[in-house]
Design a protein that fits this description.
This protein has 16 helices and twelve strands. Helix 8 (170-178) crosses helix 9 (187-213), helix 12 crosses helix 13 and helix 14 packs across helix 16 (363-379). Strand 6 and strand 7 form a beta hairpin. The chain is of the alpha+beta class and 413 residues long. It has a single domain, classed as Cytochrome P450 (Cytochrome p450). The protein is globular and about 60 Å long. The structure holds protoporphyrin IX containing FE. Protoporphyrin IX containing FE (HEM) binds next to helix 5, helix 11, helix 12 and helix 16.
């Protein structure tokens, strides 16, 4: 870690990775200031070590568009602010690789999430969502995260993997631990994280071997098992790619579904408009929710050479953190950017799914899940009121919630 003399005030200004900022949802003014005054800024010390922050939309796009200069590879420490060198769970997944290996593995998974494949999931998804909403208690306080967001996203994962239904409760536990980079270098918590990741890998390896012995089937594990690029991965690559698909399909969509509740409480008029015209507005209400939530707050790259960027010199080996939550609020792209606006014309330009060669493979599926939830809520004329403050995660990576207590009213359909 750099030992640069820096005042506590200056460090507060520059270190936007601090968990307390995220737990208190207090990060907005910090990023607004950086975007306005120092959009490419260097933080010389944090629990994750020194790092650069990229906070404007166009600069994030520029970094993502130059993967030769800004590498994703686990060999340099990977794609999150916490260096993957510092753990035994290095998660050598294809999101944390550069081409050509990244491209080969991405091509293996991509056919599972084409519009045609996703269309096949639509009917069961709608039926599952409707049933769950109909079973929620009316007029009683309950936790939206655990009653709606987790069950819906876990069910989708069981479909994607053809995962044993009776063990589905394991998926969010593994997913949460795999994504827990907010623990930083804490050895006890890292040991716990490693334990869960190894358990996840062992469970999936057994399923994978079973699928390999069977003829090809349309689920992610079978597709991997019968592919050239992913049938013989080493242990770290296997565990990494499973973690990528489990976290990718789980925490992210879950926290969008939870974020929806905060947005409709903040903007009741916009919610009334969505309920009056779900056919016209549900899709943009979904992308607006994903934009404002930014469930993955950042991705990190490592500079492979000295480079002049945004008037600064980024040195070879430096960590470069792209703050999507900030890019999504860049007023030069999104007018009145903090506003949840289901009529916003350029909502889809948001950066929550990243940009360029690593852009999220599950984007369409995530949008479908969220739009379906919104449509089914609208059909029931649901109003969901916050009870108290949501309990947020203290994480600058998974921008999400532990609990959101709500009370709900709905019409019967
Ligand atoms: C709202 C929900 C979601 C969000 C916010 C999200 C966000 C992201 C982000 C930020 C990236 C990295 C992009 C970049 O580096 O430029 C990514 C990549 C990826 N996501 Fe998602 N994701 C979501 C849902 C999903 C789902 C449902 C799946 C799978 C079923 C998924 C699978 C993946 C995969 C496989 C990659 C790696 C792509 C690559 O490296 O080529 N994601 N996602």
């Amino acid at each position: 870690m750099a030992t640069v003399a820096i005042s506590p005030q200056e460090l507060d200004r520059l270190d936007v990775s601090r968990g307390e900022l995220w737990a208190a949802s207090a990060w907005r003014p910090h990023f607004a200031k950086l975007r306005a005054e120092e959009p490419v800024s260097y933080c010389p010390q944090s629990i994750f070590g020194p790092y650069w922050s990229i906070t404007r939309y166009d600069d994030i796009v520029a970094v993502e568009s130059d993967p030769e200069t800004f590498s994703s590879s686990w060999e340099h420490g990977g794609i999150v602010i916490f260096d993957m060198h510092d753990t035994n769970v290095q998660l050598r997944m294809f999101i944390a690789m550069d081409d050509p290996e990244h491209g080969e593995q991405r091509k293996t998974i991509a056919p599972a999430v084409t519009p045609t494949e996703i269309a096949k999931l639509t009917g069961p998804l709608r039926a599952r969502t409707a049933k769950l909403l109909d079973e929620l208690p009316v007029g009683e306080t309950f936790d939206w995260v655990h009653s709606v967001s987790i069950p819906l996203t876990t069910a989708m994962l069981t479909t994607l993997f053809d995962f044993p239904w009776e063990d589905r409760h394991k998926l969010p536990i593994w997913s949460d631990w795999a994504a827990k980079i907010d623990i930083g270098p804490d050895p006890v918590l890292n040991a716990e994280r490693e334990k869960h990741c190894f358990e996840m890998a062992a469970y999936f390896k057994k399923l994978f071997d079973e699928r390999k012995a069977l003829p090809p089937q349309p689920n992610l594990l079978s597709i991997m098992a019968h592919s050239d690029a992913m049938s013989n991965l080493d242990d770290q690559r296997f565990m990494g790619n499973i973690a990528l698909l489990v976290v990718g399909g789980n925490d992210t969509t879950r926290n969008s579904m939870s974020g929806l509740i905060e947005r409709i409480n903040q903007y009741p008029d916009a919610w009334a408009a969505v309920k009056a015209d779900p056919a016209g507005l549900a899709s943009t209400a979904a992308t607006e929710t994903i934009r404002l939530q930014t469930p993955i707050a950042h991705m990190r790259r490592t500079a492979t050479r000295d480079v002049e960027f945004g008037g600064k010199t980024i040195a070879k080996g430096d960590k470069v953190v792209m703050w999507y939550n900030s890019g999504n609020r860049d007023e030069s792209v999104f007018a009145d950017a903090d506003r949840w606006d289901p009529t916003r014309e350029n909502s889809r330009r948001h950066l929550s799914f990243g940009y360029g060669i690593h852009r999220c493979l599950g984007a369409r599926l995530a949008e479908l899940q969220l739009a379906t939830l919104i449509e089914e809520m609208a059909k029931r004329n649901m109003d969901v009121k916050l009870v108290g403050e949501p309990e947020r995660l203290p994480s600058c990576f998974t921008n999400g919630y532990e609990h959101i207590n709500v009370i709900m009213s709905r019409d019967n359909v």
